[in-house]
Amino acid sequence: MIVPDIEIVTILVIIFFGVPIIWNARKNGLWKSFNFIGLIKTINKTLIIQGVIGLILILLTWLWNSADFKFDSFVAGKTYTYLIIGIFMYLPALGILNLIKLGIKKNLEKQ
Q1: Into how many domains does the chain fold?
Q2: Distance (Å, rounded) from C-alpha 81 to C-alpha 75?
Q3: Would residue 111 count as lying in a domain?
Q4: What is the pLDDT of residue 43?
Q5: What keywords are assigned to this protein (predicted)?
C-alpha cells in the first residue's frame, strides 16, 4: 500500500509511538535516575496504551471507510503504517530488549 502524504503520516506515527513513552517515562521518574531496566519497564507499560491507540485507529479507519469521507485513504494509510511498524518493528525490538533484561537480571543474581 502506498500511503498518500507520507511525511504527515510518518510524523503522526512517530508521535503516536513517542508521546506515550515520554509521558510514562516522566511519570515513572526515569528522567531523574535513568537506567536500562527502568526504560524497558516503561516501554512495557506503554505497550498497553499503544495497543489502545492501534484499536482506536482501526475503529476510525473502519468508520471512515464505511462513511465514504474525503480523507479515508489518509486515515487508512496512517493506521496501516502504525500497525506495520508496531507489529514488525516495535514488538520484536521490545521482545529482544526483554530478553536482554532477563539476561542482565540472571547475571546479577549469580553475583
Answers
A1: 1
A2: 10
A3: no
A4: 95
A5: Membrane, Transmembrane, Transmembrane helix
pLDDT band per the 50, 70, 90 thresholds, residue 15? very high
- The verdict on residue 110 lying in a domain is no
pTM for the whole structure: 0.86
Q: How far apart are CA 29 and CA 41, in angstroms?
A: 12
One-letter identity of residue 100:
I
Residue with cell 549469580: 110
Cell of 104: 542482565
The one-letter amino acid code at 2 reads: I
Give 74's pLDDT tier (boundaries 50, 70, 90).
confident
Q: Which amino acid is at 49?
A: I
- Can you give the length of the chain in residues? 111
Provide the residue range defining the domain that includes 42: 6-105
Whole-number pLDDT of residue 76 = 87
> What separation in angstroms does the CA of 53 have from each of 5, 49, 80, 110?
21, 6, 13, 40
Average pLDDT over all residues of the chain:
91
**In this structure, is residue 32 part of a structural domain?**
yes
Q: How far apart are CA 107 and CA 54, in angstroms?
A: 36
Asked if residue 97 is part of any domain, the answer here is yes
